[in-house]
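User: Last request for today: this protein with glutathione, please.
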Amino acid sequence: MTDSTEYSPPKVWTWDKESGGRFANINRPIAGPTHDKELPVGRHPLQLYSLATPNGVKVTIMLEELLELGHEAAEYDAWLIRINEGDQFSSGFVEVNPNSKIPALMDRSGSEPVRVFESGAILVYLAEKFGAFLPAAGAARAECLSWLFWQMGSAPFLGGGFGHFYAYAPAKFEYPINRYAMEVKRQLDVLDRRLATAEYIAGPDYTIADMAIWPWYGVLAKGDIYEAGEFLQVQEYKNLQRWTQTLGARPAVKRGRMVNRVMGDPASQLHERHEASDFETMTQDKLQPAQEEPVGAA
Ligand SMILES: N[C@@H](CCC(=O)N[C@@H](CS)C(=O)NCC(=O)O)C(=O)O
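Assistant: Here's the final one, the structure of the complex with glutathione:
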């Protein structure tokens, strides 16, 4: 079960720029900005700086769901942050998120702008601001927040663990792939069992817990990330499959997935979103060549 490339750690770790596998160019052991650049600001109160990775899509789904419900104050500008080109290390972005990761939100509706980073915090902030998709109190709120934080704690094992070693590492190593496949299968079973007795993740209602979990585990269940559907036998999780399809059919989910998307079918990519009508006027001249993006560099 040992790998052929065993490693004896030195006394002191040093930064080896070649060691990070795919996307090694954005991995650094230091925080802070690498260059001076302000972020653009559009005309809506909500300014989102993001990319359509699973963590980014959670927020664009929420904003599109709020608009679908008729909350006009949820209109937003979504600016593209190309993380594999280092946009997350600009001085402007670091001011909004000192952790240099998408998604990041500026709420400019009040007298002072409010910054919000971490996708879970953004979902809670928007849910509270608009009084939607998060039960107000009691057991229902506790259940929703429990599943939301379950997602925040679990997805790094899927993305940074399984996804990294199965899809991005410089070579396939049995030990980490085995370890993280085991954990991801366990997580899929957690969701499948929950969805055997509940229509949505937090109970009878669709909430921010669904919006947080679907872009990771729903998309994994469709076999759409890491090309791991067969390896993980995702079709076995029948209740998860039912929920995945139900959510995937929601118009706001379909729109949310397109915003800040730079990969896949060009017709599914809306690089920046400034108006609701942008979805209708998506034209080829707005589209640039597809490129690869890190799926959850968490
Ligand atoms: N826990 C964070 C994770 C955010 C995250 O990992 N974002 C990735 C893309 S999915 C990123 O911006 N990576 C850029 C980098 O690591 O430099 C959240 O949920 O917001």
